[in-house]
Amino acid sequence: MIKTLAILSPNQKAYSETFIQAHKNLPFNIKFYYGGTIPSFLEGGDSIMKFDLLEKIKRKLLRGFTFAEKCLLVSLKKEKVDCVLAEYGTTAADSLKVIKHLKIPLIVHFHGYDASVKEVIEKYAEKYISVFKFAFKVIVVSKKMKEALLELGCPEEKLELNCYGPDNSFFTIRPTFQKPQFLSVGRFVNKKAPHLTIFAFKKVIDVRPDARLIMVGEGELLNICKELAKLLNLEKSIDFKGACTPKEIKELFQDSLAFVQHSIVAENGDSEGTPVAVLEAQAAGLPVISTYHAGIPDVVINDETGLLCDELDVDAMSDNMLRILNENGLCQKLSAFGKERIGDNFLLSKHLGTLETLINKATNH
């Protein structure tokens, strides 16, 4: 009999969370719950927070549960869930009381901010200890994240390093390396520091005025970055594309020289996990120009599959972009090694296979 897996996620279809959407392809009867860290919706149905249920709950009392917790409890019980996969540590922490009450095996998948933002860590530190104690496994996506959770008190034997993988379709892309064009794909947020990529590109333009930078994505820093481009007289050299479809992004991969992203630890502590776009770029055959940040050096080998610099070192990033433009054969060399390494070590099928194995072990435990 096929096991029923409940995936609990704060969001239904956040465009930056392709890794969560990929988890719906696991070979189980998937029940996808979303809408907050105690989810209130079941995909394919209505809100699980029914008013008729409220009346029943009032008659039986909440017995120590909030209304949201009781609604989730009733739904998980009704769907006969065999295992819970909680996307983000915060979701696991806030839904833990329900999961423990039902004695459902729990696997927790940390992704980034939930293991790094100072305010989140302060708020959830004690709850995380309870999560670590109850969970069957705690999944992390980088060596840096593993160190962070060890410091927060997670037993090492419960931690599983399982990096994401790119969709197989990215491996079919063959960049032409004909245009002096760099590509950035990601949310315009502090930890991805798009403004620092722009400053680095300004120094490139001073030497190579024919270069172009394509920036794909939306976010709180988008308008600021557009104003910065105007201030630096880069309006004709930078193209802000906004949100693009996967098909459009793949076409941009094919027409670009390299993928650029100047990731940093934000002032509030927010850090990347392992950026999926970095994996996708290498699978597509694009060298990655980025920073020694979070999980990036786990998947990008400096001078072999890409070019890395320290966080905030804009000059070094500029130099790396100029190397790509000026060194004959460098793109092709980095491209070949990058595509091969991602294919050997970071396939999506491998990521999902590890998850499948852990879920089966949890339900048979």
Short description:
This protein has 14 helices and 13 strands.
Explain this structure to me?
This protein has 365 residues and is of the alpha/beta class. It is 44% helix and 15% strand. It contains 14 helices and 13 strands. A seven-stranded mixed beta sheet has the order 3-2-1-4-5-6-7. α3 (67-78) crosses α4 (89-102) and α7 (194-207) crosses α12. The protein is elongated and about 70 Å long. The mean pLDDT is 94.
Any low-confidence stretches, pLDDT <50, length ≥5? none
SS strand fraction: 15-25%
Strand order of the largest sheet: 3-2-1-4-5-6-7
Q: Can you give the helix content as a percent range?
A: 40-55%
Alpha-carbon distance between the termini? 17 Å
What is the topology?
Layout: E1 4-9, H1 18-23, E2 29-34, E3 41-42, H2 51-60, H3 67-78, E4 83-87, H4 89-102, E5 106-109, H5 118-134, E6 137-140, H6 143-151, E7 159-161, E8 181-185, H7 194-207, E9 212-216, H8 222-231, E10 238-242, H9 246-255, E11 258-260, H10 276-283, E12 288-291, H11 296-299, E13 306-309, H12 314-326, H13 330-345, H14 348-364
Parallel strand pairs: 1-2, 1-4, 4-5, 5-6, 6-7, 8-9, 8-11, 9-10, 11-12, 12-13
Antiparallel strand pairs: 2-3
